[in-house]
Amino acid sequence: MTLVVRARRVVLPDGERAAAVHTAGGVVTAVTGFDDVPASAVTLADDEVLLPGLVDSHVHVNEPGRTEWEGFATATRAAAAGGITTIVDMPLNSVPATTTVEALRVKREAAAGQVAVDVAFWGGAVPGNAGQLRPMHEAGVVGFKCFLLDSGVPEFPPLDDAGLRAALAELATFDGLLIAHAEDEQVIDAAPEPSGASYAAFLASRPPAAEETAIGRLVAATRDTGARSHVVHLADGDALPLLRAARASGVRVTVETCPHYLTFAAEDVPDGDTAFKCCPPIREAVHREALWEALRVGDVDLVVSDHSPCTPELKRLDVGDFGLAWGGIAGLQVALPAVWTGARARGLPLAQVMGWMSAAPALLAGLPGKGAIAVGRDADLVAFAPDERFTVGRLEHRNPVTPYAGRELTGVVRRTWLRGREADGSPLGRLLDRGGR
Ligand SMILES: [Zn+2]
């Protein structure tokens, strides 16, 4: 099966230009001049740019066990609609949590046959499972997630300092990767309790110092063990100097942020609107701008959704109580337009956005077929209209609660191809192993 797509603007690893992308058997076979095409070539409209498929390395699918929150069919349909051709599923919120080889088998069985895009899996590092890490690595997980404080679900307990170091030491023996939810329990315990509809009170309950303290612990343990670690969903601009210094001194730590931290600001979150509740919280605009600047200069490596939905009941929109509501934001389908809207307003180019949202997450997750339009890579392509505006309406996610509802964004995904086939929501996706295709 062959497909040739050409456009006046194609985002390639070395920048943007007019080109034709030739594919066969689901793989890119050549990138040629715009005019060097067969009669069957698809030509994008003048207002469309051809992008590599996005890779979202931070998605909570929750199936099996909490499929009513989100499942593989709905999550991957939302991904395809949003130009995301690969997701990496988080090990928690499903039951069982992916903390053993057997639980990985159960997860893969639940996903098989119903995924509209490609799916890879994170394992989990929890107290007492250090001996499971190498077998899970060999079974194909891309790395391991841990929490440094209560995760919100009892089946996925956090690592204390000794547990963190034990996990990193074990991972260092096979150059595995540990990704960490970095907030510190003691700092949060010492802060005021969140309660009621006040967003300011919720924000005060999870101060920036909680992120800085936990990141400090992670950096020290990463340095001492020589392992690789990654900070998920950074919200705190004040933690950037600490990370910059660690990286400059050779500590192997990378960092991601999320579309909601780049889009919203605490000053604008309405009291009682728990659709905005996530942990760490959306902070003040000064943090948002620091994160944008860090992306611009390369101090933050990637932007991924942290899509973490639940049922509307658990969001407690009935009472609007930030203390009671589940923390997690649903935004997988609008990740690209949300980030592009912000990047465009700040004069940052689309090619750089693709670095954060396609190339860098593919590298983090060790998926060599993904992350770029280049010969030998998978033919994962997106036709994107970067100047078209739209208002966020019904999304493909299982549950419709999202802080993006009704928001006007710029940039419309018009078509997505997965390995050369139109990603129309039907189950074309594959389950991927680390390093695999
Ligand atoms: Zn998450």
Automatic annotation (TrEMBL):
Signal peptide start-end: none
Residue ranges constituting the Amidohydrolase-related domain according to the UniProt record: 49-421
EC number(s) given by UniProt: 3.5.2.5
Single biological process term from Gene Ontology: allantoin catabolic process
Cofactor(s) essential for the protein: Zn(2+)
Keyword match Iron: no
Enzyme class: hydrolase
Keyword Metal-binding annotated: yes
Pfam family, one: Amidohydro_1
GO terms of molecular function: allantoinase activity; cobalt ion binding; zinc ion binding
Entry keywords, A to Z: Hydrolase, Metal-binding, Purine metabolism, Zinc
Recorded GO CC terms: cytoplasm
Matching InterPro entries: Allantoinase, Amidohydro-rel, DHOase/Allantoinase_Hydrolase, Dihydroorotase_CS, Metal-dep_hydrolase_composite, Metal_Hydrolase
Annotated pathway: Nitrogen metabolism; (S)-allantoin degradation; allantoate from (S)-allantoin: step 1/1
Family matches, as PANTHER family: ALLANTOINASE
Protein family according to the UniProt entry: Belongs to the metallo-dependent hydrolases superfamily. Allantoinase family. Belongs to the metallo-dependent hydrolases superfamily. DHOase family. Class I DHOase subfamily.
Function: Catalyzes the reversible cyclization of carbamoyl aspartate to dihydroorotate.
Summary of subunit composition and partner proteins: Homotetramer.
Designated name of the protein: allantoinase
Organism: Geodermatophilus obscurus
Organismal lineage: Bacteria, Bacillati, Actinomycetota, Actinomycetes, Geodermatophilales
